[in-house]
Structure formats: structure tokens, C-alpha cells
Amino acid sequence: MSATAKRSRRANAGNKLRTMVEEEQAKLDSGEIAGSDEDEDFVKKGDEEDVVDSDFEETDSEVEHAAADASKLAEALIAKAERRQKRKLAKKRIVPRFASLKTKAKKEPSDSDSTRKSKAPEFAVRFSSRSSAVRKAKESDMLKHEREVMADIKRRHKKPKKAEEAALTQEELLEEAKQTEKLNMEKLKEFQEMAAEEKMRQRAASARKAPLIIQPVVHWKSAAVSSGEPLVREVKTEYSLDEIDDKHYPVNPWSRRMLIKDPPLCPVTGLPARYFHPRVRVPYANARAYRVLEELARGEHAYFYDLGVWGSSASL
């Protein structure tokens, strides 16, 4: 739908055209516009008699039928136009509810009004008697009255101004700050618990992802059994020799030596392992051991319990 169809009709729509029509009608009534009998350009020539060929000559019966059909068609068109006009007149115009809210009281005619009417000129201004022009004028008056009523209603029902909130005192501000701090601490505690649970879930997931290598494991279990004999408490005795010079007579030379840790051995080659496999979590020595550990992680080797060795799963 276009914007022109949505907007409301203007109050002065059709005024210029109506004014021009009224002026032309007034000129015609006054006799200013009259046709000239001596105008040669508009002289109508006599109708020449038509010569009809014998092949195209119509009979009297055909002419009568054509005239009857034409009269029927004209009557049908006239009836259709009358029905359309009746439907237009039968339509009821909707009057808004608030049209009667702002009604002006009629003033009683006074002496001044009668004198004013008597002074009016004898000639009257001619108005258009067309029903459409009268209807449009009434509609424009109704729209104007409706706008005035709506403006009056909006002016009366304006929103009241909100009352300004009173400023809080120092004690009220402190109390509000305490409540806010309490809520923030509760939220912080909830977030910390959620973060701890998330870390635990991540650790459990990473532990499950690590591949497992199945191999024989020997477990030694021991338990303390009382023999019934009394326990003997042993105490270590230390001797200190202050008069002996450690430089010439070293008593404990091992105390100043660095501890030498045995390096872990590679389970594949038996050599000292200098690397650590991140997935299998087993130390290895060289590239060959790394490849073997990768194959074990992928499940390409099987352990033979009878022989106590690892072998290829393809030989099974």
C-alpha cells in the first residue's frame, strides 16, 4: 500500500476544482458565454445520404432486432447505475463516539444578529449543489472537529510527573553497601565452587585419555604380626671429636659428596633413558624405543604370558 493511500484526506481537497466549476456555471447562468451564430468553423454541414450496397442492405426485421437489443442493453446499464447509486446512499457513515463530547451551545438570536442579517447583501453566494461536494465538506468538518476533540483528550490525560526520590542518609547508604557486599561474597563463593568442580572434571577427563599398557604386575603384601616378645628400643649414638682436624684426618668424606641418582632405564633397549613419553608416561632412550612405545599405545603388540615377552599382534 502506498503512502498516499494511508494518509488522511486533506480538509481543502477539491476546493480549486469546485471553485472553477462554480465560476463556469455562474458565467453560463449570467450569459457571458454564448455561442456565435456566424462562427464558420463550427458550421455543421448537411448529412449526405448514404448509399448502401445491395449486398449489405439490411432487412426491416434485422433493424428491429438490433434496435430491441440496443434498448435492452441501455435499460440494463441504467438499472445497474441506479443500483450502484442506491448502494452508495444506503451505506451508513460511522460517527465516532467522541463526536458529541465537545458540542457548543446554540446562542439565542439577539437584536444585533437580526440587524446584521438585515444588512447582508441581497444577492447570495452560489454554492455547489452536488451531493459529492456537500458530502466532502461535511467530512472535512467532521475530521476537523475530531482532531480538536483528540487534542483536548490528550492534553487532559498527560502523564503526571514522577515524584523525586529522597536522598538516602549515610546510615542507609552503609546498610545498602553491607547488603551488596554480602550478596557479592555469596556469588563469589558459588563461582569458586563451580571453578573447582570444572578443574576436577578436566583432570578426570585427561586421566581417562591416557593409554594403558597391560603387563604383568607383581604385588608384595606384608602385615605386622606380634611375636609376643617385648619390644627393644634402639637408640643411635653419635660421637663428636672436636680436637681432630678434618683437613688432615677426614672422618666422613662422603658427607660432602653430591648424591648421584641412578638414571631411569629404557624398558625397550635397557639403556639409560634420557626422554619421557608424554602419552604413555614411560621413559625411553632413542627413536627406536619411541616407535615401539607408539605401536604399544596403538595396540599393535600383544603380551604373551607364557613366554613373558611382547610380540606383534599380527602373529596371533
TrEMBL record:
Q: Which Pfam families match?
A: YL1, YL1_C
Q: Which regions span the lipid bilayer?
A: none
Keyword hit for Coiled coil: yes
Low complexity bias: start-end ranges: 122-134
Q: Which residues form a coiled coil?
A: 163-190
**Which residue intervals are annotated with compositional bias (Basic residues) in the record?**
1-10, 85-95
Residue ranges, compositional bias (Basic and acidic residues) = 19-30, 106-120
Region Disordered, residue ranges: 1-62, 85-143
Sorted alphabetically, the keyword list is: Coiled coil
Q: Which family does it belong to?
A: Belongs to the VPS72/YL1 family.
**What is the protein name for this chain?**
YL1-domain-containing protein
Which organism does this sequence originate in?
A: Linderina pennispora
